[in-house]
Design goal:
With 588 residues, this protein is an alpha/beta fold.
Length: 588
């Protein structure tokens, strides 16, 4: 006769308790064995069930006492001893509702072809690494004062944790690292987890949903879902409350990641680590009871970013965070988004006072925001962000770095081109501003040339044939000076002694026009014949610089202004070419 291990025959258990007899009877019929309608507080003869007797029935009983294919359904029992099902193969579902256990359940490497239901039960932890359950795992309304280990487990259905209290006694409360779930993981109905809730590396075929639940860190993070792969969405929504760090870095989420109504409380430390994520749909960050501070999204990518006025706190990490669209619940303006970027950690937003090589300013968030605005058709907002970015670069000393090795008194020269570029064209984003500058410069120089021509008789024809013609003698300043000496009591006529107003100058010669003359100099590619036919009268230079300085006249000043306007004109021309070519490349 084949010998069976101890505990595999009914005769091995001797006299059965009242509760065990009831369980044996209902196991044969497949009906629930109701020892009590609520979880017992103490053990009695009427409610005690030995753990190894329970194991006997869970494994199918014996030939004379088979268990119905519906499996074991025990309610209200006081389980005595250690229920050890490590490595067991069980062909039915197991339900232990309203049961009280004083020893952890050992289910490592167990294979269960059905569901495991521990609803309303109290136990000091669960050791179930690598367990395989073809159905669902029910942990509703349970009280656990120890670690529940489901590391590398395989759950064909779903995991439900509703209204439960999980206390890890200073260790992780629930470890599900590397778990594979065929449907959903759902935590809700005021569940409370004290100790780390870990889903590191989990594979979930449908959804992860946590709402109206609290996670409290003892050591390590409060909620840890790093590197999870979810083929549906992740909804950590209204009532999801973490006291301590929440982690979801490295996650791969095919659907939406929603934190709508979540409450992240870091207790002085970081609140949310969501770095290196890949979310194929939208990231929802709305309706927060407290703004999200000390949160990191570095290196993550989402398809759409949805936020509102109360989303963002301070000390954010956004370097490398990318998104295709912004669907904000507030007006989508450059001001609001720049304010968002300024909420980054001061070290990376350029507001810590450090400059040059000491600064850790990160340009990527600015450049990406500008790119997204442009792609969304918000061209004006994109330009405003671009201008603000250039100003921030100058503020942190990252403009003119090529002059860093220059003598300290000259390093400021490296900033001049950038300042002028911003003033003249808004760093290329306001090219029409250059036209206003051109108009202003033209009017200024026109006024000076007009005053110099009328009051100081500075301008004269530059064609030598005109000077050689005696018919124009009355137009020379020397003639005017002589006339004044001869008629000391009379005002000099405006038509005498000034080439600009002289009536004797024949109409065939190009008349002097201060406006056209200024425009001819300013626009180097335009020839209005003014600069060619007219020029300032400057006396012969003195051999000594000192004598030259002592005898400066209006002619000298006008000549300098002409040189200055010429340089300005060439600079504007080159700037226009650069802007036009840049705009052309962007269109292409």
């Amino acid at each position: 006769m084949k010998t069976l291990p101890n505990g595999r025959l009914l005769e091995h258990f001797g006299e059965l308790t009242t509760a065990e007899s009831t369980l044996l009877k209902h196991a044969a019929s497949g009906t629930p064995a109701r020892i009590a309608d609520s979880r017992p507080e103490t053990g009695t003869k009427e409610n005690k069930v030995r753990a190894h007797f329970l194991r006997f029935l869970i494994l199918g009983g014996d030939a004379e006492n088979p268990v119905h294919e519906r499996g074991i359904n025990l309610r209200g029992a006081y389980i005595v001893g250690v229920l050890d099902l490590r490595g067991a193969e069980i062909n039915t579902s197991v339900t232990l509702e309203h049961c009280l256990c004083f020893q952890p359940l050992y289910l490592e490497d167990m294979q269960l072809k059905g569901s495991l239901n521990l609803n309303f039960s109290a136990l000091p932890g669960l050791v179930a690494s690598r367990v395989s359950i073809s159905g669902s795992l029910y942990l509703n309304k349970i009280y656990s004062h120890g670690t529940i280990q489901l590391i590398a487990a395989k759950i064909g259905g779903s995991i439900y944790i509703r209204g439960s209290y999980l206390y890890g006694l200073g260790e992780p409360a629930l470890q599900m690292g590397g778990i594979a779930v065929g449907s959903v993981v759902r935590v809700e109905d005021k569940s409370k987890v004290i100790g780390e809730f870990s889903l590191v590396g989990a594979l979930i075929d449908n959804q992860l949903s946590c709402s109206n639940c609290t996670f409290i860190a003892i050591k390590g993070p409060a909620f840890n879902a790093d590197n999870i792969i979810v083929k549906g969405g992740v909804y950590l929504t209204k009532g999801f409350h973490t006291i301590g760090l929440a982690r979801i870095s490295g996650a791969r989420i095919a659907g939406q990641l929603s934190f709508r109504g979540a409450h992240f409380q870091g207790n002085g430390g970081n609140t949310l680590s969501a770095q290196g994520m890949q979310v194929d749909s939208s990231l929802v960050l709305t309706e927060f009871p407290v703004p999200l501070s000390k949160a990191a999204f570095s290196g993550s990518h989402v398809k759409s970013l949805i936020d509102d006025a109360n989303t963002w706190g301070d000390k954010l990490l956004l370097n490398g965070f990318t998104y295709n669209f912004i669907n904000s619940r507030i007006p989508l303006t450059a001001e609001t988004r720049i304010a968002w970027l300024d909420r980054q950690d001061t070290t990376y937003s350029g507001q810590d006072g450090l400059k040059g090589s000491d600064s850790k300013f990160r340009p990527q968030p600015w450049r990406h925001l500008q790119k997204v605005f442009e792609e969304m058709g918000h061209s004006e907002e994109a330009r405003q962000v671009g201008i603000a970015f250039e100003k921030r670069l100058r503020k942190v000393g990252l403009v003119g770095q090529s002059t860093a090795r220059w003598w300290p008194g000259l390093r400021w020269l490296g900033l001049i081109p950038h300042v002028l570029y911003g003033a003249l064209t808004g760093y290329g984003y306001r090219p029409m501003r250059l036209l206003a500058w051109i108009l202003g410069i033209w009017l200024f120089f026109t006024t000076v040339y007009w005053y110099a021509a009328v009051e100081h008789k500075v301008f004269a024809p530059s064609n030598p044939l005109v000077f050689q013609n005696e018919a124009y003698a009355s137009c020379t300043p020397e003639y005017g000076d002589a006339w004044k000496e001869q008629h000391p009591k009379q005002d000099l006529p405006s038509t005498v002694g000034n080439w600009y107003t002289c009536k004797a100058l024949r109409g065939e010669y190009t008349g002097f026009s201060p406006g056209a003359y200024s425009l001819d100099i300013l626009l180097s590619l335009v020839d209005l014949q003014q600069e060619k036919d007219w020029g300032p009268i400057t006396p012969t230079p003195f051999p000594s610089y000192w004598d030259e300085l002592k005898n400066l006249e209006w002619g000298h000043g006008i000549r300098l202004l002409i040189w200055l306007e010429t340089l300005i004109g060439w600079g504007i021309s080159l700037l226009l070419v650069a802007i036009v070519s840049g705009l052309t490349r962007r269109k292409e």
